[in-house]
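Fig. S4 source data, part A: sequence.
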Amino acid sequence: MLQRILFWLVVWLGSWSWAQAQEPTEPPQTQTPQSQSKEQTSHTDPMPASQEQAAQSGDVIQPTPKTQINRMLEIGIGPTAYRGDLYENYRKWSSAVHIGLKFNRKHRINGHLNLAIGSVTGQNAAYAFTGESETTPQPNRFFKTSFIAVNYDLQINLIKTPRWIVYVSQGIGFMRFNPEDEYKNSLQGQLTSRPTDETYGNVTLLLPTQAGALYLFPNGYGAGVQAGWANPQTDYLDNISQWGNRSRKDNVFWAKFQFVAPLVFKR
């Protein structure tokens, strides 16, 4: 339900920001020879009070600096895929929604906060443990893991112009995950799916590595893409570790299509 609400929020925000970016500006008014002659002969327009006072006191009038976006709210949605004991490559796709806060004060390196809610899934009906075991291996051959992940990362801008930002990032955070079987029962409590002495927690460290690009419209709104690896430091996204045939930890590839909106302006 939450993913559906955020999906339509993303669609609305993208449509609105695009309409704002396409809003026509008023063409400059052309002056007729009569108006030009009147302008040249008439100099009776009063000076604004603030400028008149500044002129009388001898103070220098400073121009207003150009508006700069300092923080941006991000809302995105995109695919997720798992690699682990049931799949050696990323081929079974699920989805996740993302809400983030992007800092944009510095030219080269900026911080970023992200909340992701989604799932990954895998199934291999022919999977069998090929190693040695004291008991008869009965690993699960299907799983669907829902997760909530929070992370902070540093985004290094490779390109940053008033319209484009291209970056790579490295982050750190935490992920809470819950593997379930095809009947939506938690696999963490099904001790027959693992060796008798094998238990695990469902909160893990996250070290996401990502890259992305963002385009900003003249009104400060924008759209972009981002992709990378979540790098959770656990081997239990699929509930399989000791009865697994690969030695490396499970991983998640995720991507998102995002829209951004300015939050704070520096004047």
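Fig. S4 source data, part B ends here. Strands lie at 68-83, 93-103, 109-123, 142-160, 164-180, 203-206, 209-216, 222-229, 251-266.
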